[in-house]
Amino acid sequence: MELLGVLLTYPLFPYLEQELLRRGCHLLRLYDSPENNHLAFLRANAASIRAVVCDTHVGADAATIDALPCLEIVSTFSVGVDKVDLVKCKERGVKVTNTPDVLTDDVADLAIGLAIAVLRKLPAADRFVRSGAWKRGGYPLTTKFSGKRVGILGLGRIGLAIAQRAEAFNCPISYHSRSKKHHPNYKYYPSALDLASNCDVLVVSCALTDETRLIINRAVIDALGPQGILINIGRGPHVDETELVSALVEGRLGGAGLDVFVNEPDIPEELFQLDNVVMTPHVGSDTVETSKSMANLVIANLEAHVMGWPLLTPVM
Amino acid sequence: MATATCTTNTPKIGEKPKLLVLRRISAYFEGVFSPHFDLIKAEESSLPLPAFLSTHCRDIRAVLIAAPYGMFGSSLLDQLPSLGIVACTTAGVNHIDVDACRKRGIAVTNAGEMFTPDAADFAVGLLVDVLRKVTMADRYVRNGLWMLKGDYPLGSKVSGKRVGIVGLGSIGSHVAKRLVAFGCPISYFSRAPKPNYPSYRYFPNVLELARESDVLILSCALTDETRNIINRDVMVALGKDGVIINVGRGALIDEPELVRCLKEGVIGGAGLDVFVNEPEVPEELTHMDNVVLSDHRAVTTPEAFKGVLELAIANLDAFFSGKPLLSPVSC
């Protein structure tokens, strides 16, 4: 990978950058130049950039790809590819790789952790103790997680991993997916609305596409109802965030565990007042162990590309 | 022997059996028990308790103990010569002199497994929270720091962590079942190996368990043997990335030593639902970022209480009709 010119769109896990340098890559850091200067930066360095490593903060959009005539490959440090213009890449013959599988466990772990945290109000309990309020009285009861009906939107790798964990809590599993899967124990529903009407905990774990944008709309939220909770470990734009906020504030939705938002890191402040909401700053796969595995996968893909070997995890 | 005969003082048809309640119970509890039993409430009397018992409770056969308000032992038992059953709505019975009851032929019943799933859920929830910093991250977001400071420090993967369970009883085995689904290898320390769980690795003491674990989950009863079972040696063995989750009793851990070990980085973090002197919590813990603290709420769900009260009623009904008790405490 000597002298491979790699554009980094966002500050990466330090190990990834170190490894790219160790292998002799020439790194160009888009984030070192101010945002309004990005295109100029790209054009100035276009001749050397053959690879882009991006992530969910800053992807590889059409303008970026257009500015890089020597671009051969985009490796995203994520499994979601909604921030990569796949159509443009296909047009230009630019290869795309992502990081599936290595982060499945982390995201599934967080989904279950968020569900328990919301239902049993863990952050609220912690606040209750730290503030000294526990010395003055008790906190109202919180509802049991085990046995709740779990509905999974998108029964892919992550959805299946969530189902597997929820089953250990005796949660009946149902799902909605583009197509029915062969799972005798999991009940299929033909729409997100049907799914929401028949579960207590709705988990969003599908890819963000034109079909799934705003799939969690007012009707779905109302169907989930005042005892229902929404867990979003997919993408912010899956959810009509304005409707979600008003449903939570008005008590029409029982609670929410959210790892993703429409306009990260800008989160509707109304959520900060609510004990039945748990928010994490897009940390679905943010563990030391998984970041390292994701980094290794990015590097392995870039190396495969340079050596003319088959890519490990190509998207197209 | 768990069953009791009722040859004397059997309630007449239509008459509700008497149930002594020593301390005030909530309206909710009262609403559940009063349709079935004639509640004799000691706290409503102006008499001090010993006088009340000797005056009004010579024929009392059943007492309901809804919370650990002090030891229920010989001095009270002596005032209740007809007592046949002590129905507790807690899982732990440290506040009952079970030995003294047994010697008098008095059965003790507890909450059975009614609290178990909630306790297990909570232990798992605390574990994910500590390793993935869920509560800490929620606090970060609520304080506006995601906007101001940007991305949050990395957490530690839950799946695959080596889990060591201290006390593989009802709660411990339910915790294990859940964490197996997270790909966690399970080890345990218990008074004796459990042949029902051949795939879990047994250790004869907590120190060795700690050496081979990334996480220790405490789910055993508090007894003289288990008091301070988590001491400095155990925490050193667990190591600087190790995490302790306590849904048992505060006194299972040497609490001042825990605080020191967390401050010094001897262990990596803790999720604590119980403390030695609730609701007092060591002040230093309330300033730490690598701990998650909760108010002894692991089992307090409406679903658990409903189950526990139904179980207590079932035990009492069984007692009054001479049938086997459902959740007798064996010792």
From TrEMBL, chain A:
<dbReference type="InterPro" id="IPR006140">
    <property type="entry name" value="D-isomer_DH_NAD-bd"/>
</dbReference>
<dbReference type="GO" id="GO:0030267">
    <property type="term" value="F:glyoxylate reductase (NADPH) activity"/>
</dbReference>
<dbReference type="InterPro" id="IPR050223">
    <property type="entry name" value="D-isomer_2-hydroxyacid_DH"/>
</dbReference>
<dbReference type="GO" id="GO:0005829">
    <property type="term" value="C:cytosol"/>
</dbReference>
<protein>
    <recommendedName>
        <fullName>Hydroxyphenylpyruvate reductase</fullName>
    </recommendedName>
</protein>
<keyword id="KW-0560">Oxidoreductase</keyword>
<dbReference type="GO" id="GO:0051287">
    <property type="term" value="F:NAD binding"/>
</dbReference>
<dbReference type="GO" id="GO:0016618">
    <property type="term" value="F:hydroxypyruvate reductase [NAD(P)H] activity"/>
</dbReference>
<feature type="domain" description="D-isomer specific 2-hydroxyacid dehydrogenase catalytic">
    <location>
        <begin position="17"/>
        <end position="314"/>
    </location>
</feature>
<dbReference type="Pfam" id="PF00389">
    <property type="entry name" value="2-Hacid_dh"/>
</dbReference>
<dbReference type="InterPro" id="IPR029752">
    <property type="entry name" value="D-isomer_DH_CS1"/>
</dbReference>
<dbReference type="InterPro" id="IPR036291">
    <property type="entry name" value="NAD(P)-bd_dom_sf"/>
</dbReference>
<feature type="domain" description="D-isomer specific 2-hydroxyacid dehydrogenase NAD-binding">
    <location>
        <begin position="112"/>
        <end position="284"/>
    </location>
</feature>
<dbReference type="Pfam" id="PF02826">
    <property type="entry name" value="2-Hacid_dh_C"/>
</dbReference>
<dbReference type="InterPro" id="IPR006139">
    <property type="entry name" value="D-isomer_2_OHA_DH_cat_dom"/>
</dbReference>
<keyword id="KW-0520">NAD</keyword>
<keyword id="KW-0521">NADP</keyword>
<comment type="similarity">
    <text>Belongs to the D-isomer specific 2-hydroxyacid dehydrogenase family.</text>
</comment>
UniProtKB/TrEMBL annotation, chain B:
<feature type="domain" description="D-isomer specific 2-hydroxyacid dehydrogenase catalytic">
    <location>
        <begin position="70"/>
        <end position="329"/>
    </location>
</feature>
<dbReference type="GO" id="GO:0051287">
    <property type="term" value="F:NAD binding"/>
</dbReference>
<dbReference type="Pfam" id="PF00389">
    <property type="entry name" value="2-Hacid_dh"/>
</dbReference>
<dbReference type="GO" id="GO:0005829">
    <property type="term" value="C:cytosol"/>
</dbReference>
<dbReference type="InterPro" id="IPR036291">
    <property type="entry name" value="NAD(P)-bd_dom_sf"/>
</dbReference>
<keyword id="KW-0560">Oxidoreductase</keyword>
<keyword id="KW-0521">NADP</keyword>
<dbReference type="InterPro" id="IPR029752">
    <property type="entry name" value="D-isomer_DH_CS1"/>
</dbReference>
<dbReference type="InterPro" id="IPR006140">
    <property type="entry name" value="D-isomer_DH_NAD-bd"/>
</dbReference>
<dbReference type="Pfam" id="PF02826">
    <property type="entry name" value="2-Hacid_dh_C"/>
</dbReference>
<dbReference type="GO" id="GO:0030267">
    <property type="term" value="F:glyoxylate reductase (NADPH) activity"/>
</dbReference>
<protein>
    <recommendedName>
        <fullName>Glyoxylate/hydroxypyruvate reductase HPR3-like</fullName>
    </recommendedName>
</protein>
<keyword id="KW-0520">NAD</keyword>
<feature type="domain" description="D-isomer specific 2-hydroxyacid dehydrogenase NAD-binding">
    <location>
        <begin position="124"/>
        <end position="298"/>
    </location>
</feature>
<dbReference type="GO" id="GO:0016618">
    <property type="term" value="F:hydroxypyruvate reductase [NAD(P)H] activity"/>
</dbReference>
<dbReference type="InterPro" id="IPR006139">
    <property type="entry name" value="D-isomer_2_OHA_DH_cat_dom"/>
</dbReference>
<comment type="similarity">
    <text>Belongs to the D-isomer specific 2-hydroxyacid dehydrogenase family.</text>
</comment>
<dbReference type="InterPro" id="IPR050223">
    <property type="entry name" value="D-isomer_2-hydroxyacid_DH"/>
</dbReference>
